[in-house]
Amino acid sequence: MNKQQIYDYLQENSIWHEITEHKAVYNMAELAEVPCPYPEADAKNLFVRDDKKQNYYLITVKGEKRVNLKAFRKAQRTRNLSFASAEDLLERLALIPGAVTPLGVLNDETRSVQVFLDQDFLQEPGLVGVHPNENTATVWLKTEDLIRIIREHGNEVVTFRCEE
């Protein structure tokens, strides 16, 4: 799905959302320059893989947080982790670096990418801001809706406490 297909999907399924169109952003520092209605709900996304290139994980945390991959690996009982390549990202989620988003799993035909979502997104106001498969916009969704969208697609979603 591309950006317009994400918008259409949300509209067709009557899923509450707001859209902030903006210049292409490639990191949280660039996003911080964009006026956003819910800056506390900005998401940072990491696409990682295990050392055998057999398991892929999308980790989504609040924008100001840092992810300690060693602590994450230990808590989630995974093999050693490293960032997945741009080729893996394109092959598995049809995304480019800078546009990583949980909505990318809608392009995961094998439903093999596991999504880990920072449980802080479930706190009031219960919103999350993610790219619509392109880094030229942010879509604000209810966190519960995002979880439901991913699960209905067939990918696993685990909420976790991000230990910085």
Low-confidence stretches: none
The main sheet comes to: 5 strands, mixed
Give the overall shape, derived from the CA principal axes. globular
- Radius of gyration based on Cα positions: 15 Å
Number of helices: 5
Percent helix:
25-40%
N-to-C CA distance: 32 Å
String of helices and strands: HEHEEHEHEEEHE
The averaged pLDDT comes out at: 95
> Based on helices, strands and strand pairing, what is the structural class?
alpha/beta
User: What is the strand content?
Assistant: 25-35%
Total E-strand runs: 8
Q: How are the strands of the largest sheet arranged?
A: 4-2-3-5-8
Account of the protein in words:
Helix content is 26%, strand content 26%. By secondary structure, the protein is of the alpha/beta class. The protein has a five-stranded mixed sheet. Strand 6 (127-130) and strand 7 (137-142) form a beta hairpin. It is globular and about 40 Å long.
Spell out the key features of this protein.
alpha/beta; 5 helices; 26% helix; 26% strand; globular
Can you describe this structure in just a few lines?
With 164 residues, the protein is of the alpha/beta class. 26% of the residues lie in helices and 26% in strands.
Question: How would the blueprint of this fold be written?
Answer:
Elements: H1 3-12, E1 17-21, H2 28-32, E2 43-50, E3 56-62, H3 69-76, E4 81-83, H4 86-93, E5 114-118, E6 127-130, E7 137-142, H5 143-153, E8 157-160
Parallel strand pairs: 3-5, 5-8
Antiparallel strand pairs: 1-7, 2-3, 2-4, 6-7
